Each structure stands twice: as structure tokens, then as C-alpha cells.
């Protein structure tokens, strides 16, 4: 019997395993419970926001796969964890039409219908904090993660990193794209504009819970990754208004007061936008005998 949570582009099961092999039946209730803990929405507006966010990141970074990751075979196997709407995989498939692309998320309700996906893309419902199914170990050349600030629990990304490490083939690469929230600032078109109330309305109030972003390279090294590199990207002010408008959608999803959003929006029209730089971590799973060092 086909498993409803294990789907491919042609609507068929990707592998003939029992439900217990995937941990889907055993963990399905836990997945549903954990999905309800998600701090944002999964409605149509949230999906539009995620897709807008993807294209803004692509415009700013200029890549899906970091340029450091080279020498990929045409049939490279890539996993996208916390895939969201699967938009990253769909765009990547146009670049790598022969690649094997798997998306994983605790919920797939924001993804396109399976009948509309390219056959090279498969989607699987899986909580990235749960145990890794045995058949996924050592299967991927690249594991990609992006924007899980609100998913990481207890200021500790180690369980996610461990699963990513186990999913990779020896010599495979991790690419983790994240917001550098500690470097966020308010940009203004004029130095005389008062930014105080605008900044207070949108600032992240509990930065201590996000300290792991700064520590991600060292945590990855402790897990066993080698050649861990951190690449930082500033903000393109020509895109700042679009990011800010998207931030208002986030505020709505987080149930901020309508008056606070309206006031912030009115202030933004004077020439204000909150800008958050980005950081990309690229790390390698060592080949046998390779030492755990950073270049």
C-alpha cells in the first residue's frame, strides 16, 4: 500500500519499504503535534511569502548552490530540509535537470500537487528532529537547509546537523543559509528620520535563543564536518522595500497588533526598512582519513 506521506513527482512511492522503515506511522502523531508548534502560518499568504522570500534571496545571493560546491555529477543527489513550498528544489531542477532532488518537511501542505512536480523531485514528510530512517543514510551529495530560525529548539542545531551529516555521502557538502540577525539594522533614506519606534516594533526580542547562528560553524565542526567555511552577505538596498513588505506579512502571521503593523508600514513609507544580512555555511563530510580541520 502506498504511503501518503512519501510521494514523488509521478505520485508513486519512491521506495518499497514498510511504514516502520520510514518511521511515519510511529512518528505521525508527533509530527502533527510538532507542526502545530510552528510559529508561522501555512495558509496561501504564507506560501506567497515563502516564494517571494526565495526569489529575493536568489536575487541577492545570485545562486542556489554555493559556488564553492563544484564538480557535481549530472545525477547529483540533493536533499532540501525544511523545504517549505519546495520552490528552491523547483528552481534548482531547471539548473540541474538530471539531478535527484528530495524535499523533506514536517508538513507538505504548502507544496504543489505531486501530479504537477517534475519526476526528478520527490517530497517526504519528516520531522528533521526525529531519527533518520536507515535508508537515507549516506545517500546525498548535498544537503541544503535554509531559514530555520523558528524551528531550531533550545538554541541547539546539533540534532539537525547530525541528521544532515548522516544523510551525506563521504565527501558530500552541507549548505546552510541563515539570517545574521545579530547584524540587523534599520536603513533610512535620510539621516534625520527617527527610526526608534520603527525599530522597536520589529526587533527580535529574544536574541539569546538565536545565538546558535553565530556558533553554527563551530557546532558543525564538533559534529564531524571538515573544511567549514562561513560566507557573509550584506543587504542590497534596492531590494530593502520588498524585504520590509515581506516582514509585515511575518508580523501578521505572528499575530502582531494591527495598529503596530499599520504604524510601522506608515513609517516605512517615509524611507525605512529593516535589513538583515545573510550568512551561508558550507561544510564537508570527510572522506575516510581526512582530518577535522577548518581551512
Tell me what you see in this structure.
With 295 residues, this protein is α/β, with parallel strands linked by helices. Helix content is 33%, strand content 21%. It has nine helices and ten strands. The protein has helices at residues 19-22, 24-36, 44-61, 87-95, 158-167, 196-202, 212-223, 240-253, 258-268; strands spanning 6-8, 77-81, 100-105, 121-125, 140-146, 168-179, 185-188, 226-233, 272-275, 278-284. Helix 3 (44-61) runs antiparallel to helix 8 (240-253), helix 6 packs across helix 9 and helix 8 packs antiparallel against helix 9. The longest helix has 18 residues, at 44-61. Residues 1-29 have low confidence and may be disordered.
What's the short story on this structure?
The protein is of the alpha/beta class. Helix content is 33%, strand content 21%. Helix 4 (87-95) links the parallel strand 2 (77-81) and strand 3 (100-105).
Secondary structure topology:
Blueprint: E1 6-8, H1 19-22, H2 24-36, H3 44-61, E2 77-81, H4 87-95, E3 100-105, E4 121-125, E5 140-146, H5 158-167, E6 168-179, E7 185-188, H6 196-202, H7 212-223, E8 226-233, H8 240-253, H9 258-268, E9 272-275, E10 278-284
Parallel strand pairs: 2-3, 2-5, 3-4, 5-6
Antiparallel strand pairs: 1-4, 6-10, 7-9, 8-10
Helix pairs in contact: 3-8, 6-9, 8-9
List keywords for this structure.
single chain, 295 residues, alpha/beta, eight-stranded mixed sheet, disordered N terminus
